[in-house]
Amino acid sequence: MSTAPTLNGQVIGQAHYATRALLETVLAPTGTTFNQSVALNAVADGGEAVGHGALVARMTGALKIDESAVLATIGELAESKLLETLPGDTSRLRITEAGRTLNGQIRAAVAEITERLYGGLPAEDLQTAGRLLTLVTARANAELAAD
Prior knowledge:
This protein is mainly α. The chain has six helices and three strands, in the order H-H-E-H-H-E-E-H-H. The chain has helices spanning 9-27, 34-45, 52-63, 67-79, 97-118, 123-146; strands at 50-51, 83-86, 89-95. Helix 2 (34-45) crosses helix 3, helix 2 crosses helix 4 (67-79) and helix 2 crosses helix 5. It is globular, with a radius of gyration of 17 Å.
């Protein structure tokens, strides 16, 4: 019988990349990139609209990408008519009906993947893993901010 590995960057990375590969199988047929899916989610979660700067900050902070990559993503989504600026307030973005439909399809597929991967795992284990990974993320972000 083998023992479970101790939580470390390699174990976290393997889980991330395996899960990301599953997500990419959902995104590929829609022609949506990972960054685009993150932006659509963020705007959809923002209610009526989200500030352009807030979206840039959220994506650069969460994905560890530079502002130019976020701006390119926003431009792609606007060009595809999935996001638009609010009439009379170009500093705020909202998701279009087409964007909402696509985001809903992606979320439904992700919910199915999530159930397959996490379903049946003990709630206490999931809570412990969540706490530990949140702490590791906070420590890494603090080190990045110090540089």
